[in-house]
Structures are given as structure tokens and as C-alpha cells.
Amino acid sequence: MKKILLLLFSILCAIPTFAQDPNDLGAWYMYFGNFRFKESPWAIHGEAQLRSFQVSSDLDQLLLRTGLQYNLKSGQASFLTGYASITSGTSGKSRETFHENRIFQEAILRQKLGKIGLTHRYRYEQRWIEDQDFRTRFRYTLFLNIPLNSKELSEQGSWYLQAYDEIFINGEKPNERIEYFDRNRLYLGLGYRLQKGVAMQLGFLEQTTNTISKGQLQVGIFHQLYSRK
Predict the structure, then answer these.
(1) InterPro entries, alphabetically (predicted)?
(2) 213 Cβ neighbours under 8 A, 6+ residues apart
């Protein structure tokens, strides 16, 4: 346990060094909920993300996403389709925002390499952005979940490391405003299972586009609920 706490402290101390200026460090505060119907493959997904250009201020995005999920009985795959509402701000003193409506479809595939859990997420998005033409986007994410003190991440009291890399590719032909490559997100974090259906994570994400690279502190809560019937 002492080694795990030391690792957590090391991550917290290392986060500010990723940003040359403390004002360059942003933050994402996230809640992910999954409501499972007992003895049914169906579930309702919901999430809320508040992103800021700085740790405690300057709105970057408010993202609300929900969808209907189908899970294979084996647990090796799930499929989700849904809707997202995104309000985005601009960095600095301006308080102007713009809105995006988004529909998405995704497939999640899971596998094990020894104790390490691998997850592949494939997502396709259709985007209606205020004052812009209709756009689409492809996303692929590879997650690695590494248990630290237990065999399964679902066990209460489990500590784990999570790392992922996600690449975004635009679906339109490149023009003055759009290129094929949209962005990349690289993440490393430490998680703790509070109880069977609740986990928390703290980590750091580096988001890179063709023009900028920005560090983001991430704090996330992951909540799975089951119906009683």
C-alpha cells in the first residue's frame, strides 16, 4: 500500500512539470454512469464532462452524452449508439460559446494479456457544429488497465494503473479548415475501486493537434448501477 501511495504522490508531483506555464495546465472533471438491466444485455450509458482551459476556470467544454448499449454475455464486447450535446468556449477572457449536436456509434472489444486488460474502442461520429458544415469523425482508442494489488479490477479496494492513446481522424476531404488528422490524446492515471460499482481515477492527459499541445489534469468517477428486477 505504501508503494501505491508513493506512486500516486509521484503522479501528482509530476503533473505540473508537463506544462511550461501553470496557466497552460487544463482540467477535465468527469462522471461516467452505466445503468444495467439485471439479466439483460441492455444498458443505458450516461456521462458528463466539464473541461476547462485552466485547472479551476475558463470553460473549454461542457459535454453531456447518453446512449443505449448492448453487451455480449461473455463481456468481451459491447456496442453503443447515442447522442451528445457539447458547448465549447474559447481560451482567454472571451465568454462566447458555440454548440454542437453529435450522434455516435461505437464498438468496444476487450481482451486479457495475463493480468493486463486491453480494451479497443472504435467510434464513428456525425457532427452538427454551429455555423459550420456537417462533419464526421473516426476515433480509435487502446486502453491498458494494470492491476496493482488484486487479480481483478472489480474487487473492492483494488488499485490499478490505466493508460490509453486515442487518435481522431476527420471523415471529410482536407480543405482550408479541416485536415485528416484531428488530434491525439495520450493518458496515464491511477485508479481505485471504492466498491463493486464505483471507481475513481486521477491522471494526466496530453492532447495534441496540428497547432497545439496541451496538458490536462483528469479527475473521473465511474459508476455502474443494476436494476433490482
Answers:
(1) DUF2490
(2) 206, 207
Q: What is the DSSP letter of 173?
A: P
Query: Which CATH number does the domain housing residue 45 bear?
Result: 2.40.160
Q: How far is CA 142 from the centre of its chain?
A: 11
Q: What is the DSSP letter of 13?
A: H
Distance CA(209)–CA(119), nearest Å, equals 24
Q: How far apart are CA 6 and CA 74, in angstroms?
A: 36
Cell triple for residue 145? 488497465
- Whole-model pTM: value is 0.88
Phi, psi at residue 14, to the nearest 5°?
A: -80, -25
pLDDT in tens, the chain (229 residues): 555 555 555 555 555 554 445 567 899 999 999 999 888 999 999 999 999 988 877 889 999 999 999 999 998 999 999 999 999 988 777 788 999 999 999 999 999 999 899 999 999 999 999 989 999 999 999 999 999 998 888 888 999 999 999 999 999 988 877 899 999 999 999 999 999 889 999 999 999 999 889 999 999 999 998 876 6
Instruction: Give the number of domains in the chain.
Output: 1
Q: Using CA of residue 207, residue 19, residue 87, residue 56, what is the dihedral sign?
A: positive
Distance separating alpha carbons of residues 187 and 119, to the nearest angstrom: 14
Residue 48: which domain range?
Answer: 2-226
Q: In whole angstroms, give the CA distance from residue 67 to residue 96.
A: 28
Q: How many helices (H) and strands (E) does the chain have?
A: 1, 11
- CA gyration radius, the chain: 18
